[in-house]
Amino acid sequence: MPDFRTTCQIHAAVFAALFLSYLLLPGLPLAAFTLDAPPEARFLARRAAFVFLGLAALLMLTRNAPKSDARQAIAIGLVVIWVGLAISGIQGILRGIAGWTGWFTVVVELGLAALFLPHLGSGRHDDRP
């Protein structure tokens, strides 16, 4: 598994690509789940783009962080994001809201979550009151 620095760089690149996709081609992420892209959905996709940009910046700025509670919190947060997205994707596919093409996205999300699993124990574990 990659070290924390490399894991953060991989995720930052993914989030930067998602930012560009959601901002410039907002119908593309919807097409991944075989969904229509009405103007309202494209508007929300463009707004969500900036969440991805913020996550990319967070990861690039903390990629050199030493083992700490903050670094562990970042790892936990990213696992929660990816697993949550995968669960919502699975739910949408099984309920018939999203198309079968969403399975590829679910697999990628679970793979990205797995990259942070080795870093979950990177907290300080000292004796605190």
Automatic annotation (TrEMBL):
Segments crossing the lipid bilayer: 12-32, 44-61, 73-94, 100-120
Keywords: Membrane, Transmembrane, Transmembrane helix
Keyword Transmembrane helix in record: yes
Name of the protein: DUF4345 domain-containing protein
